[in-house]
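Predict the 3D structure for this chain.
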Amino acid sequence: MNLSSSPQYLSPLSPTGVILLDVENFPLKLDLGQALKPYCRHPITLKFAVANWQNSSIAKLDKYLHSTGYQLIHVPKEKNAADAQILTLGASLQLNYPQVKDIVIVSGDSIFNYLHQTLQRQGCNTYKVYQQSGNVYIDDFISDRASIITKVFAPLQQTTEHKLRTKIELTLGGLMQKQQQKVTLSQLSQEFKLKHNKSISEVLKNHKLPKSTLGFIKKSCAGKIDIEQRNNIHYLTLKSFQK
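Done. Predicted structure below.
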C-alpha cells in the first residue's frame, strides 16, 4: 500500500504542550493546564506527575492530579530520583510525541536548565514554573520574560513555607510561655522535633527549601520573630510577647 495516499498520513498532528511536574518540588493543588493558557503558545494535552507516592506529604495529591489528567509516575525513595525521571522523560519527548512544541517543567531545580537548552535546540518552546518566597512564577525562555502568577494560585492552598513558618511561631510561643524568657535556637529546634516528629531542617530538606534553620527564620519569620546573637548563641523572641 502507498502510505502517502492514506488519509491518516496526510495531515500532521496539531502542535501541543506538555507539563512535566516534580510533585515534591511543587506540592500544590493547582489546575496548571488552565492557569498556563495565557502564557503557552499551544494547548496542553499531555501531563506527567513524578514523585515517590509513598511520601506522606504528597500522597493525598494523587487523586487530584489523576482527576485533572496527569499520568502518575512513581520513583523510589532515592536522592534525585524524580529529577532523573523528568530528565529522561524530557529527553525522549520529541521521539515519542513529535507534536509537542510547548514544554513546561514545574520545578525550580537548576539541573533542568540543561534540559531546557536541549529542548530549545530541538525547536521547542520551554517554560519553568516554580515557587519562591511565597510567590509562583513562570519563566518564558523564548521571550526571556518572567511573570508572577500568584493571583492564579495563592487562594487555592497555603504554601509549605507558610505552614512551616506558622508551626515555628506557635512552637516558639509555647516555649516562651513555659520559660518566661528568650528561647535559644537549639531549644526551639528540639521542641519542634518533639511536637512534629521531624526537625525543622528535615522539613526544609524534604520540601527543597533553603536548608539552614536560622536562615529560614531570618528570611520568612522576620515579621514575627526577633533574633539576638550573644557568644555565638542565637536567642529568639516572638514579637507579640515583647513588652
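Strands lie at 16-22, 44-51, 71-74, 100-106, 125-132, 135-140, 145-148, 183-184, 225-230, 233-238.
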